[in-house]
Protein 1
Amino acid sequence: MPSLKQIWHNDPLICQEDFHIIEPNSSFSHLFSQKMDFIFANQSLYYLTKNDFNTTLKELYDLCNDGAIIFATMMASECYDMYQKSKPLSNGLTHIQGTPTGRMSENSYIRFTDDIEQLKDDFKLFEPLYWGDYTPINLYNFEGSSRHFIFIGKK
């Protein structure tokens, strides 16, 4: 199966200069020659340690035009119950070892958000326009809460 990079390299309609692979835990500010007006970070930032999260938010802020909008979601602590996990680590992440049902069996690391106050603090660089939460429809509720917090802000 071809990688995403191979797919866009083979597509004549895609300008290769507009796509970048960002290596984990590395700076990405040098990849963009223009400022941004919108950042969409849906269910992605909670995989970063607290320090990497802060660094990433600062880079995103610096890459934004004045008035740019950021939409971001963070996984709520209630979701903690749907995972087989270890105790939180010193870097702010929790080692996830799958789900009780076996639907997800891989290891990963998640930084859970406890409440709106933590969300506000995490995104304090941006002027808040909206904060709230959502829970995707879960017809069977076999793994517990899937609640996420939403932050919409402006530079």
Protein 2
Amino acid sequence: MRGEEGRTASTIENEPDRREMHTQVTPFDLRAWQEGNRHDHRAGWKGVSPEFGEITLTCPLPRTSPESIVSEVRGGLLPTASFEARGAHAEGLRLPTLNRFTLRVGDRVVYVTRNRFGVTSEQRALAMRYAGDHYRLAALDKRGYVLTRAADDEDPGVTITVRETGRGKGRRLSVHVGGRAESGDLALGLVFAGVDRSALTRIGAVRAGLSRATHFWTEAQY
């Protein structure tokens, strides 16, 4: 998953580190919303962070191509973050998946790797590098996940835990931040609420493995 065409891992890793204000973040909720019609339907999550302002996660954005599906978080003091899955498989998706995607925060591409065959939650977690920092995103279960920014010599790191609760119109995302976060941390953590993360869970990983095995067996018959 290289991100933008022509941008390799070494290109991204050599970009200068960012320096932003680290902020203690008050826990907050995003509420489910939807609007529009069948041809211009929008849905996702909206809410207010006392420190970062009004936040809107649209998942997905109205399609501009049948082979592209995008979820996006923007608003307040956050940089815009987008997660786009692209390819023939995208046409039938309800949300972007972890197959053939590009992740951006602001004007930067986030370099992502994962172990499709990981046995534990930690082994299946996404490993990411964004603007000089290392992150991991692990599933707690099918309704929750945690993003961790690794500690370094200048900062003890941060964790952002996002969990969906409620049903129907009462659905909400509860966001809790441990440590002092930057705006990019929060944007990166929230955009994954608009992504199909099932492959990071144990059951989802098993299903994905069976799907791959069936595909390979079918291909071998020709």
Protein 3
Amino acid sequence: MKDPEILSRFDGRGRAEFLLGGLEGRHSDRITAIGLEFGYDLQATEMPSKSTVRLVFVRNDSPPVRQRARQSQERLRAGGPLLPMWDAPTARPGTTRSVTAEEPASARRGVTTYEANGAKKFALCVALLSVGCFVVAGVLRDRPGAALAVLVVFAVPLAVTAVLIPRWMKRWYEKNRQLVELHDQQRTGQGGPPPPPPASPDGHPHAGDGQ
């Protein structure tokens, strides 16, 4: 999916949907990033089938977000980048790293999915796989070597993973949530980059525009 097609969906309408099938799913983060940059919030990530994903966006009419969307439109008309980079703090105090707009978009989709589904379903699926492996090991009890292999390679590791999944996913969620909150502050002008500078006399934006 090309950028102009994505932009055409974020044209001021109240709701925008993208139904992505197969390899189109790789565009999800970029679509989300463009939507956020131009004043839309990701409302839901749905999976109508195993091979398709639907992204549902709604227009955010809060004044800070609308201002941010106007600044993005002005930057684009001036020849600036569609998705600017921004600086996020690192674990080392006083240091930052450059972040693409797609990274917080990916984090936002993860937060939305976690808040909608939690970790229980995933943990339950892994636990059921573990139980199935224990059953297989029981069936193979007349073949001790094969039964032990199933237990050691599959059943026990899956059982441990099922127990740890909620903790792992909680940590992953908190990391993503912090990145999303920081990005929201940047989008609303609370500590993020300023509006793009005016174009130079030759009509081109100054170097670093949108950074």
